[in-house]
Amino acid sequence: MKSEDIEWKLLVKHLSQEASLEEEARFTELLNNDSGFAVLYEEVSELWNDLQNNAPDFDKARVRMLTEEKINTAKQTLIRRNILKYAAIFIGILMVFGIIAWDANNTKTVIAKNGNIKAYELADGSIVNLRKGAEIEVSASRFFDFNRKIKLLKGEAFFEIKKDHGKGFEVLTPNFTINVLGTKFDVVSGGKLTEVVLAEGKVVLDNFKNKSLDGVSMKPGEEVSYCTGCDNVVKTKVNPAIYTLWMGNKLEFKKFTVDELAVVFNKYFHKQLLINDKIIGEKHIGGSAPNDDINLIIKALSDILHRNIIQRNDSIIIE
């Protein structure tokens, strides 16, 4: 085996703490007696420590910058005959670091296609239910553990986050970040408007462009809406069950009020339910219907309320 190969392996094993006692002795001998090896070790260990401390967010541009700086330093400092040998070893290490840095930032996009709901299990056991057209970005690293951070690129998704000994979990939306522990919540991201509905647990919203909005805490049964054009946060009380109806094959109404059914019409059918009677609005109803048949729902509602219901353009009117 070539001497440079031996020195390369000694250096890597020492940095990864996998060297035997004999190998450590040889490493120490080289470090004390070979100034070229000593300079190489100093430069490479700096990069190694940087990678260990910042692996999930390793900056590829920084790798390139450090590569140029260290090679230039090597050219000026290593004046022994074996300069080319150590430069080759150093460049080899940088190539390995480059691969690891690329892997640390490697991601994949998961998309719900073909009109189906996609249940995607993350590496920590958490589940993300994607509505048709929704897209998320998750880590695809082969070297590093899942960092419990994903991006909701667009669309609607319901998250069932598994607790992991106090480790946090982040969902990055285009407008802010959702910080969670173990919890269940629905997120809709549609360009300028982002909505979060909390079903269980607790979340905190951060990283708004307007930093004065950071720290919005949510409790179960609350919805937070944020619009970039308005640049403000609106928090309201809601029935979380409304926001998970899309996950089933049918719309299951479990003691919904007629007022809450109006939210269902608006969210899922883009229709406005007009209610002129407050008593009717507070009346509870139950049942189920196909999630794509608004006429069947209107007929059932008419029978339950004993009222005539008509459709006019985008309005549904209870007479």
- The coarse overall form would be elongated
In CATH, what is the class of the largest domain? Mainly Beta
Category by helix and strand content: alpha+beta
Question: What is the straight-line distance between the termini?
Answer: 91 Å
Helix content: 25-40%
Main beta sheet strand tally, sense and closure: 13 strands, mixed
Tell me the radius of gyration.
29 Å
- List segments where confidence is low: pLDDT < 50 over at least 5 consecutive residues: none
Estimate the mean pLDDT confidence.
79
Number of strands: 18
Number of helices: 8
How is this structure best summarized?
This protein folds into 3 domains: 3-104, no CATH class; 107-240, Jelly Rolls (Sandwich); 249-318, Phage tail protein beta-alpha-beta fold (3-Layer(bab) Sandwich). 36% of the residues lie in helices and 31% in strands.
Provide a descriptive summary of the structure in words.
The protein is of the alpha+beta class and 319 residues long. It has three domains: 3-104, no CATH class; 107-240, Jelly Rolls (Sandwich); 249-318, Phage tail protein beta-alpha-beta fold (3-Layer(bab) Sandwich). 36% of the residues lie in helices and 31% in strands. It has eight helices and 18 strands. The protein has helices spanning 3-15, 21-33, 35-54, 60-77, 83-104, 258-269, 278-281, 294-305, and strands at 107-111, 118-121, 127-130, 135-139, 149-161, 169-172, 177-180, 183-190, 193-200, 203-206, 216-218, 222-227, 232-237, 250-257, 272-274, 284-290, 309-312, 315-318. Strands 1, 2, 3, 4, 5, 6, 7, 8, 9, 10, 11, 12 and 13 form a 13-stranded mixed β-sheet that branches. Strands 15-18-17 form a three-stranded mixed β-sheet. Strand 8 and strand 9 form a beta hairpin. Helix 1 packs across helix 5, helix 3 (35-54) packs antiparallel against helix 4 and helix 3 (35-54) runs parallel beside helix 5. The chain is elongated. The mean pLDDT is 79.
